[in-house]
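Homework help board

Subject: predicted structure for assignment chain

Our instructor gave us this sequence and asked us to write out the predicted structure in token form, then describe one feature. I got the tokens but I'm not sure how to describe them. Can anyone check?
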Amino acid sequence: MRVKDLSPGDVRKWRDAREKIGRQEYGDDHLDRYNLVDLIEEIIDADVILQRFIDRLEKQHGLDDKNEVFHSNIGKINNNLNDIIWRCVLLDHHLAEQHVTDGKGGQRVYWTTERSCKY
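My token output:
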């Protein structure tokens, strides 16, 4: 299967399958995780993967700056990822402290309550 062949129904089923596995593995841990940090971490991971994808295409397929369709879509994806991060920041301004506990957050890369880099 290719991504281009996915229907909205396929994406919903994929999401549901991932949700089911996550629920089995983590149970209700989300009730004591700083969920916005989780979300931002996933978006940062998506950005890293996107950059690796670009690197792969450039190195393996000689992608150049003239491919406007590719660069336009990559730019839009990148903008959307950044938009999600900053919307999380804005949302956080409206959350009470009890909604941002992170007792089950575990060891995070970079993020700590002191905001000092652990790695």
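Reply (TA_rk): Your tokens look well-formed. For the description, you could write something like this. The first helix runs from residue 8 to 26. That's the kind of observation they're looking for.
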